[in-house]
Amino acid sequence: MQTFDQKVVLVTGASSGIGRATCRELAARGASVILLARREAGMQETMSAMPEEQALAIKTDLSDLASLPAMVEQARAWKGHIDGFIHCAGAGARARLRDVTTESMLRCMRVNVFSFVEIVRKLMRLKKNTDLLQVVAISSLAAMGHDKQLIAYGASKAALETAAKIMAVELASRSTLVNLIRPAFVNTPMNTGADATLGDFTTRLEESGYQPLGIISPEEVAQMAVYLVSPAAVHISGAIFPINGGVPC
Ligand SMILES: NC(=O)c1ccc[n+]([C@@H]2O[C@H](COP(=O)([O-])OP(=O)(O)OC[C@H]3O[C@@H](n4cnc5c(N)ncnc54)[C@H](OP(=O)(O)O)[C@@H]3O)[C@@H](O)[C@H]2O)c1
Hints:
Layout: E1 8-12, H1 17-28, E2 32-37, H2 40-47, E3 55-59, H3 68-79, E4 84-87, H4 102-126, E5 133-138, H5 151-171, E6 176-183, H6 202-208, H7 218-228, E7 240-243
Parallel strand pairs: 1-2, 1-4, 2-3, 4-5, 5-6, 6-7
Helix pairs in contact: 1-7, 3-4, 4-5
The structure holds NADP nicotinamide-adenine-dinucleotide phosphate.
């Protein structure tokens, strides 16, 4: 059994929010982390709280699907193996049905689903069948279809969940575990401030009581993601773990 110290974990969305918290938690447990995002400054900020020798940043636009196989090869060349992949990156969009465009749906699908499939496919090509690979994808409560104006985002997260569950079945015989985390609202830039792609939710949460346990911290989601790539979680695959803030789901 590998110890956490020998693990190398690839993390998308490493420049912000849940991805940032995940990278830092992994490093604190002794893992080496490959950070992926478009914003180099954001990744540098993440790495400022990590030991230098445990972090490698690769600037990546996940919507450029053709570039991803070469990126995975570059990432793997760093330590010669990749043992975990946590897909935190997410593209959000909030719009009424009448305003939804095919392009906004495709943008969510590319970042949230297609890039995930491409990266896992390439990781599978590079590893031996006996090498353990633990994969985690961050879905969303939006996949359940509870909330309005989230057609592009929610549909992409539902597609992500189904793709990951099918991978779990298909890849079990090749020592590969695939799980999902389905958070309710988390306190990250996706939801806070004027630029929030899903809209600033704090007032809405307070007024509506939609999420009775309150806003989730990115660190709480990170803890679960790190557990799912740890040596303690080698008999779990195809599962969805809700961090639901008390919202029935
Ligand atoms: N916040 C919530 O309430 C909530 C709830 C449920 C699920 N989630 C999910 O949690 C995950 C993390 O989101 P967050 O809340 O931490 O939001 P965030 O702070 O806005 O982070 C989003 C991350 O995705 C990356 N990203 C977006 N488009 C990308 C692209 N084309 N190429 C590469 N990276 C890209 C961003 O990096 P760059 O901009 O640097 O590229 C950033 O690191 C997402 O999958 C989100 O859907 C969030």
